[in-house]
Amino acid sequence: MLTLQNISKTFNPGTVNEKTALRDVSLHLDPGDFVTIIGANGAGKSTLFNAIAGSFYPDSGSIVLDGRDITYQPEYKRARSIGRLFQDPMRGSAPAMTIEENLALAAGGGGWLSHVSKAEKTAFRDKLALLDMGLEDRVRQPVGLLSGGQRQALTLLMATMVPPKLLLLDEHTAALDPGTAEKVLTLTESIVRENHLTCLMITHNMSSALALGNRTLMMDAGHILLDLKGEARQGLTVNDLLRMFKENVGKALDNDRMLLS
Amino acid sequence: MSLSAIWGLVQTALELGLTCSLTVLALFLSYSMLNVCDLSTDGCFTLGAAVGAVVAISGHPYLSIPAAMGAGVLSGFVTAVLQTKMGIDSLLAGIIVNTGLYSINIAVMGKSSLLNMNRTETVFTDMKDLLKDTPLAGFQDLVIVIIAVALVIVFLALFLRTRLGLAIRATGNNPDMVRSSSINPVFTTIVGLCVANAFTGLSGCLLAQSQKSVNIDIGSGMVTIALASLLIGQTFMGRGSIAKRAVGMVVGSVIFRLVYTIALRLNMPAFMLKLVSSVIVVIAIAGPYFKTQAPMLKRRLAGSRKEAD
What we know:
The complex is a heterodimer of chains A (261) and B (309).
Chain A: E1 2-11, E2 19-29, E3 34-39, H1 45-53, E4 60-65, E5 68-69, H2 75-78, E6 82-85, H3 99-107, H4 118-131, H5 148-160, E7 166-170, H6 178-194, E8 198-202, H7 206-211, E9 215-220, E10 223-229, H8 238-249, H9 256-260
Parallel strand pairs in A: 3-8, 3-9, 6-7, 7-8
Antiparallel strand pairs in A: 1-2, 1-4, 4-5, 9-10
Chain B: H1 3-33, H2 41-57, H3 64-85, H4 90-108, E1 114-116, H5 123-130, H6 140-159, H7 163-173, H8 175-179, H9 185-211, E2 213-215, H10 222-237, H11 242-265, H12 273-308
Antiparallel strand pairs in B: 1-2
Helix pairs in contact in B: 1-6, 1-9, 1-10, 1-11, 2-3, 2-4, 2-9, 3-4, 3-9, 5-6, 6-11, 7-9, 10-11, 10-12
């Protein structure tokens, strides 16, 4: 499904701010994989997503998605097959536009000069009803009026409106209160399952990293430290993860946010 | 002052306000929707006026309108390409195009800075003949600009609800979102600026033809005047559907001209127009800003007063 081959990226090369964010990262995902990613701050998790989504071009290596080499494809073209959610719930929708208009943008389809049809509007309402947030009765309201949790749920709906080949979730519940985070996470799980999506999810919550999905990656200093799947992942606890991290890196995991959650 | 004199003033304000409201509608698209402050507006307005005049003088009164709009599209295209494909800041791109257009406009006008259309057949003279024996006789300027404004509003109301229109609005509203979506912001910016500048060109063309002359300064300060009108319109009808907001732009433009006409009657010299428009823009933008700052300022003032006590 997705194959990364020796991806490297160095920011500000040749200056005092030089930072190698990714070192020779190789990764292969099978269709339907739901992979959780954990790692300390600055480990390269978001940079990895940026490379896959095309926010920048890697210095070396190649990216193949569903049999197509997308290494040099511009971001907006990749976005047709890659859905992405960020930590900031404000980032994924246009606040001055209505819920309906945002969904229409996400749904795409039709010609550039076509209007949103009645049938589509009904479909939007049905999809919104699944969120169980009462948004289906507010389709004409600007998105700016929604709460962070509602906006993130809407963004999730928009990103999966046309089921993408790959879904990238970058700590998409981290900015929400615990109750809403739980709800958005459950929603994520059911949408991923129903659409058989291949999904990469960054999280700082180690227990949900182990509970969700079928595979867990641990990143550090720009490369993948641990790749846990199948039997090796079964029955693993948060303490096991911490121990494995220390054994591999030689120092304890220093992400307070991860330890406290 | 007699009633007919008052009506005369109102009519002039209406004609000017409506003609220039086409530029306000252009900024409604580029400034309010696409979030690009298009500083090439002045030059593009003059370009539309010059191209329209030259085509009309050469004997094609009807061709002059699409020609002026086409010239506007070209100008908008250049501004858009400079800022999306060549890494030039959007404000700077507008200024550069505006400066370049000065030379182009003089070239279009045949190396002259003034063109006279006193005996030229234009859409206005044709409409005048058409309305000669009807109750609307003498209102040809109003009739033409009302038709133009109505067409542009209908177009905008429909266009901004298409998928392309939605994509243009999203580009201005949340660039972050657009960057990580399948919308190409380069494409939407180019289309948005081309369409907006077509209206600016049309606005210039109609003003020149109704005044029967073009001079090279016809568009100078137009961007500030249009922004002032836009901000006035926004305070009156800033919410609701696109169509309603677009109508608000036209209302703003007419109010601006009415206020200006009244000020002229009260012996304000005509050369003050641009200063007035600048002040309106400053008040309209700074006002809401100070409003948000007011609670904090109040607390600080109260604090310092306490200290003084």
